[in-house]
Amino acid sequence: MDNVKLVARDLWNLAGLPTDALRHLEFTGESPLLPTSFHVALAAQATIGTAALAAAEIGGLRGAHPGRVTVDKHDAERECTGYFTLNGHMPDIWAPLSGLYPCADGHVRIHANFDHHRDGALRLLGINKDPASVSKEQITAALACWDAIAFETAAADAGLVVAAARTFREWDQHPQAAAIREQPLISMTRIGSAKPIDNGRVPSAAPPLSGVRVLDLTRILAGPVCGRTLAAYGADVMLVNSPNLPNIEAIAETSRGKRSVLLDLKTSDGPDLLRNLLADAHVFIQGYRPGGLAALAFGADDLAEMRPGIVVVSLSAYGNQGPWATRKGFDSLVQTATGFNHAEGEAAGVARLQALPVQILDYASGFLMTFGALAALRHQMTEGGSWHVEVSLAQTAWWLRQLGRIDWSFSSADLALKAHAVAYPSGFGAMTAMPHAAGFSRVTPAWKIPSEPPGRHPPVW
């Protein structure tokens, strides 16, 4: 049994699923292609494999038999690149002012992909100019009088998204790191006493999640990847966006297979519309900060009361405990704060911080959300109860560290992304993107609904 099978087995056991199902999971592929000193390919392959196998388990309980699950290592790596094109061009995933900057005593990473985050960081730095005219050199000059931790703290206090670069040793001494070490990779809690829900029988050749309804209240990569993966396995996924919040370019790719609606929970009719959707939902995934939806009366306990038997999946940046539990963050920031940029640069032998080659914290967390949702759904179908599944980017980062390190030359291997991209219908333009890396021997994962801009569908199933 090789490393990926061991890792998959540990994930499977963590979720309390029947071990005999693991004989239906097969991994292929040899050496990884991505240049990194971490087991990025292994993390991608194991999380995708267990998510797909959990979907097969759900299908089996309902009469569908998708067959053996296979995940190729290189296909898993390619999916985690997030590669896609629109009308023949690759969208730029980073805004001009996003990135790492030197400070008086170290470095900080500023996330400026959203205008309000960018403008807030500029105000904090005392740069009162048209953001379009600001250069990275001007930001560097303004940061010269800031210590990295001081700027990180001031930004967090202002509701912004900034991370100071730390080494692994420095992060391990942080109280948030201690809190994360006390939490499981996936937290799965029974929160209600609902009876098992009969999700209906489906034809033996049907996708395993046919008829399973999912509300997807996420925007930034990990959550949307979860919803997209559930849709690939046949779930009816409804993406619920607020008309007041921005999205990233990747929405075109991560919305494959989803209905896309706009709904504002702060209006008079928004809560009622969501409650109506919730009445027929099986899974509810959300990426608000811990406590954010609870403040709007849509926390996990509220949802379980409104829809007994619901599976709620919550994503956070730094976990649900500790001093940073409510802090905002994205993959690139968590990599920086938790020591990965320093460790990767050191392994590469370069005198600079270096990011991981893909946003693996987002992608692995997204697949772990999928796995956790389906594991909880299986428990619901067999044992009853409502369930709350919690995943965080920082816990995924800690797990990735525990997988160990590999020797790597850091040469650029050819992933042949363009050659492996597939054309998909899209309301955003002519799109090519990576197919899902998992396959079933009897059913092909597919997205039956083209991706569409938010608001193209009414808020009804």
Write up this protein.
The structure is a single chain. By secondary structure, the chain is an alpha/beta fold. It has a single domain, classed as Crotonobetainyl-coa:carnitine coa-transferase, domain 1 (Rossmann fold), CATH 3.40.50.10540. The chain contains 17 helices and 16 strands. The radius of gyration is 21 Å and the shape is globular. It starts with a helix and ends in a 21-residue tail after the last strand.
Briefly say what this structure is.
The protein is α/β, with parallel strands linked by helices.
Q: Helix count?
A: 17
The third-level CATH topology is Rossmann fold
Strand order of the largest sheet: 7-13-12-11-8-9-10
Shape: globular
CATH superfamily: Crotonobetainyl-coa:carnitine coa-transferase, domain 1
Would you tell me the overall average pLDDT?
95
The CATH class assignment is Alpha Beta
Helix/strand class: alpha/beta
Low-confidence stretches: none
Q: Indicate how many domains the architecture comprises.
A: 1
Main beta sheet, described? 7 strands, mixed
CATH architecture: 3-Layer(aba) Sandwich
Radius of gyration: 21 Å
In percent, how much strand structure appears in the residues? 5-15%
The helicity comes to 25-40%
